[in-house]
Amino acid sequence: EALGEAAWRQRAWPEVEGAAEELLAGGSLSAARAATWHYRSGVANDKLGDARAAIAAFEQVATSSATERAPALRSLAELYDRAGEPIRAARALESFAADGNAGADARADAWYRAAEHYRKHEQRTAEAERCLEAALRLVEGHLPALDALELIKRAQDDHDRVAVILGRKIAASGKHPARQKALLARLAQLQDERLGRPDGARETFRRA
User: Fold this and answer.
1) How many CA atoms lie within 13 A of 61 on its CB side?
2) HEC letters along 57-98
3) Spatial distance between the Cα atoms of 99 and 111, rounded to a whole number of angstroms
4) What is each CA distance from 59 to 38, 69, 80, 195, in whole angstroms?
5) Average pLDDT taken over every residue of the chain
6) Distance CA 130, CA 90 (A)
7) Which residues, at least 6 apart from 189, have a Cβ–Cβ distance to it below 8 Å?
8) pLDDT of res. 122
9) Are 184 and 170 in contact (CB under 8 A)?
């Protein structure tokens, strides 16, 4: 194992993969060490251009409780995406996002990216919306998630919900006056033209 550790530190990917194969075949590793070497095998195979082997290795880690589980899931999402499997990529991102060990920002980003796979690749709107709401529960002002959710609600002609989303985007844009002004103008237009609230529209225009 010492030779494998040295190869890992030196990023000698063929030697890392060789060491991983030998160590895992031996069956003497603890569960934690086996997960580590499956992860390292995944990294090595990805670097060596063998996506199928990398996916197989990372999948071994994704079902474990090892510390390498989170980076393995992120790598899996990228590999699935490159392989043209958006739903599997989304599922991997969801698994990462549901892991409480990662930070809130990273998890919210993962929920958002999962939603984009559902929304753009498979038109799975309900699943996209579920992921976006999960992102916003973690980071209330996650603007990419708010943008994506607004697009979904506009397509559904849910103007009341669009108004709520615009209000959240306005609140999240306090440090960007120009963006906030544009959002206020959009909200006022929506209130006037779609929601039949001219008084609210005038007040929103005054804020802009």
Assistant:
1) 30
2) HHHHHHCCCCCCHHHHHHHHHHHHHHCCCHHHHHHHHHHHHH
3) 11
4) 9, 9, 11, 49
5) 95
6) 12
7) 201
8) 65
9) yes
**Token code pair at residue 14:** 């063929």
In sequence order, the 6+-apart residues with CB closer than 8 A to the CB of 6 are: none
For residue 51, the model assigns a pLDDT of 98
Token readout for 46 is: 């990805």
Cβ within 8 Å of residue 32, ≥6 positions away: 66
- pLDDT of 130 above 70: yes
* Residues whose CB is less than 8 angstroms from the CB of residue 53 and which lie 6 or more positions away in sequence, other chains included: 41, 42, 45
CB 4 within 8 A of CB 16: yes
Give the count of alpha carbons within 13 A of 146, CB side only.
20
pLDDT band at 186 (very low <50, low <70, confident <90, very high): very high
DSSP the chain: -HHHHHHHHHT-HHHHHHHHHHHHHHT-S-HHHHHHHHHHHHHHHHHTT-HHHHHHHHHHHHTS-STTHHHHHHHHHHHHHHTT-HHHHHHHHHHHHH-TTS-HHHHHHHHHHHHHIIIIII--HHHHHHHHHHHHHH-TT-HHHHHHHHHHHHHTT-HHHHHHHHHHHHHHTTT-HHHHHHHHHHHHHHHHHTS--HHHHHHHHHH-
